[in-house]
Amino acid sequence: MKRVIVLGSTGSVGTQTLDVIKNNLDKFEVVCLTCKKNIDLLEQQINLFKPKLAVVEDESKAEELKKRIHQTSTEILSGYDNIVNCTEYYKADIVVAAIVGIACLMPVVKAIENKVNIALANKETLVAAGTYINKIAERENVNIIPVDSEHSAIFQCLQGNNREHIKNILLTASGGPFRGFNKKQLEDVTVNQALKHPNWDMGDKITIDSATMMNKGLEVIEASYLFGLTSDKIKVIIHPESVIHSMVEYSDNSIIAQLSIPDMRIPIMYALSYPDRLENKEQGINFFEYGKLTFEEPDFEAFRCLKLSYQALDIGHTMPAVLNAANEVAVNLFLNEQIKFTQIGEIIEKTMLEHQIIYDPDLDDILNVDKMVRNALS
Hints:
Elements: E1 2-7, H1 12-22, E2 28-35, H2 39-49, E3 53-56, H3 59-68, E4 75-78, H4 80-84, H5 86-89, E5 94-97, H6 105-113, E6 117-120, H7 123-140, E7 144-146, H8 149-158, E8 166-173, H9 183-186, H10 191-194, H11 204-212, H12 214-227, E9 234-238, E10 244-250, E11 255-259, H13 265-273, H14 287-290, H15 304-315, H16 319-335, H17 343-354, H18 363-377
Parallel strand pairs: 1-2, 1-5, 2-3, 3-4, 5-6, 6-7, 8-9
Antiparallel strand pairs: 8-10, 10-11
Helix pairs in contact: 6-7, 7-12, 7-16, 11-16, 12-15, 15-16, 15-17, 16-17, 16-18
């Protein structure tokens, strides 16, 4: 039995993680669940899985939840600090890090310090603090297992192979809802249009990131830290069908790919069970239904967020943290209809140009830069 903590259990990845666990209760025990404020769903999860601990960031919501929960086996706590420290309260084997945005960074840091393996479903943690996270994970002998479908695919393609033989990583992207749009067409994009992803069911922030292709840009940076590769070895390929989740090209020009239907539960299953595999009773790929798989080059001019991500990775130090913070603020502004879709990239680029780089940053530097960017844009 693996003991599991799910950070962000009421979000898209969190609910799908619990769906996987529900079908494998003989293999996993849910130790702790956390959420921001969705206590209606959290209450259902508590009643089903009976974790030892549940943490709600919103204090008033936590108090309301306490009144609803009649069984005494689950302790209810509140506040972000308790989310950060939850790995200290009850022993776990793996933490599913599914909180959206930079808010996931400190809980991941604390989990690593407590020697708990990480199933990482959050891009921003490595984007903002990849060098630091890798350093402490190596020090504490903690595994970071990717949950993103693309990084899970790469991770699987690397099994049994020497990383020194990697020629390129081929990171696939659906292209989002605006694949083929030019810069002029993107100016009139509405929030409702941007929230309609053609293949994946995700939260609002990640869906907008997919529409701007920032999601893929963040994945480029994350891949660099996960697999120790420079930007010139990470190529983005538009693959609208989302069947090939990514590929690894080796020095002999052999390419190994991981394919599956677009279902996040598949990479979640692999992360939870690694190095084993769970049985998936759902229908797999029917190649005859697809008929063909297609590939296109990305448009770096129309989707400037992807270009900015490569630039931030090449600059390094605090620049990826600046990119991430500016993007989170800009996406929220767009979701609240305060800026145009194309202004997301403009805000990020302006913020990056104005940033005074801090070289070899520690964790405090990263957190301070993140706060500084958010304050400047608020």
